[in-house]
Amino acid sequence: MCTLEKRGNLFILTFTGEDQHRFNPNLIGSLLSLLSQVKAEATRGSALITQAQGKFFSNGFDLDWAQAAGSEQGAAERLHHMVALFKPVTAALLSLPMPTVAAITGHAAAAGFVLALSHDYLIMRKDRGVLYMSEVDIALTIPDYFNALFREKIGDASVRRDLLLRGLKMKGDEAEKRGVVEAAYGGESEVREASVRLAENLGKRKWNGEVYAEIRKGLYPQLSAILGLTHKAYTIARL
Amino acid sequence: MCSLEKRGNLFILILTGQNSEHRLNPDLFSSIISALSRAKAESTRGSALVTVSHGKFFCNGFDLDWINAAGSDEETQQRFNLLLDYLKQLVLAFISLPMPTIAAVNGHAAAGGVVLALCHDYVLMRRHRSVLYMIDLDLGIKIPEPFMALFRAKISGSARRDLLLRGLKIKGEEALKMGIVEAVYDSEEEVTNSGIEMADDLAKRIWHGEVYVEIRKGLYSELCDILGIASKAIATPKL
């Protein structure tokens, strides 16, 4: 499942257990509700870290649950359902009034990679774990908001092509070199420590959360539009 | 003109003629488009296409002789517009090809020839004896929107500006650094063989052609919007 803890100014969202942390309606529901809680309790200086236990950050949607529908049509419907349910998670992260860090200590695939990429900063392991958009390999097309996320977060066209059209399993070193993640570290504890350090440093800036969220939305206008997020202008500056 | 060879799972599109600049006129366009139709019709999972050329040129752009052989200014303009239409059709044909595509650019490519190369998912190039040159600016010719969208889709940052707005003749190493090509090779033989090797590697992934096309369209969504092609969702995963 997933849990939320507060450590000083840091909100820490954890996918617990040694499983693949696949997103099914239950987990998505929990995630949404915890993100609402984070938003409600946000203050200046808040920051969010999302992390996971075990070998996976998240391996994407729960395809077993989809297939349990019993027919190809049923599976496709369940999959569409999860794609639709997950959109508000991306929207919540994109409008969260605080800096966000994904501490990727395991594999992040498909919707799991999308969750990570929905954060402002990605920290990853060098020695284990890959970022992988598995869709091309399992014959699934990519939802519009996934595409928009990649388009606006990853500037390099060949990186986007390698991730989406080539099904590249990208390790930490390459992800760091090609600008997909902020930094890659040698082991699990280094990643967790670096994520906490980064989140704390960002929190120390005591940014106005609402303004932070608006600037973030402005950085990703197409994605914001697809997610139905509106954009407010601010004219009051703290000088 | 051009010929299409089948080698196992690979389609090899050859721009033939050692002494030819492979300039694009209605005949060559029709020939290429028809070859692509054949490849599409005969495609299976695990297909891939490599485009190679004979001689010093990959493709030196539109056939200006043919355009200028027109009887009047009006007809000259019409001929030019016709070739633009054909080029659009070419881009469309490549986008809808249900398999990975590689251009093995072993000679010079200019204007429409650069567009031809960039129509492919991956571009390999010769280190020397090969330049990419968007001659349009130097000739005082505007680049129409669909092709601008192609450049925006495939090339990022200052590389795009340098290619289009700077009249540069871009050699292999530079093209590699700019992220326009995947890799560069020393001889014509090497670039052709590497193209075939890469196609083989991609073919081994046995991607589902229809899904591959839709993912490609999603990746290049702005281009597809401008060309008026929609993408569809496929949600029955093959596990």
From TrEMBL, chain A:
Keyword Lipid metabolism: yes
Catalysed conversion reaction: a (3Z)-enoyl-CoA = a 4-saturated (2E)-enoyl-CoA; a (3E)-enoyl-CoA = a 4-saturated (2E)-enoyl-CoA
Keywords, alphabetical: Fatty acid metabolism, Lipid metabolism
One Gene Ontology term, aspect cellular component: peroxisome
Domain of life, per lineage: Eukaryota
InterPro entries: ClpP/crotonase-like_dom_sf, Enoyl-CoA_hydra/iso
GO biological process: fatty acid beta-oxidation
EC number: 5.3.3.8
Pathway membership, UniProt: Lipid metabolism; fatty acid beta-oxidation
Identification of the protein by name: Delta(3)-Delta(2)-enoyl-CoA isomerase
Species for this entry: Gossypium anomalum
UniProtKB/TrEMBL annotation, chain B:
Gene3D superfamilies: 2-enoyl-CoA Hydratase, Chain A, domain 1
Pathway assigned in UniProt: Lipid metabolism; fatty acid beta-oxidation
Keyword Lipid metabolism: yes
UniProt xrefs under InterPro entries: ClpP/crotonase-like_dom_sf, Enoyl-CoA_hydra/iso
Highest taxon of the lineage: Eukaryota
Gene Ontology molecular functions: delta(3)-delta(2)-enoyl-CoA isomerase activity
One Pfam family recorded for the sequence: ECH_1
Alphabetical keyword list: Fatty acid metabolism, Lipid metabolism
Entry keyword Lipid metabolism: yes
Catalytic activity: a (3E)-enoyl-CoA = a 4-saturated (2E)-enoyl-CoA; a (3Z)-enoyl-CoA = a 4-saturated (2E)-enoyl-CoA
GO CC, any one term: peroxisome
Sequence similarity: Belongs to the enoyl-CoA hydratase/isomerase family.
The protein, known as: Delta(3)-Delta(2)-enoyl-CoA isomerase
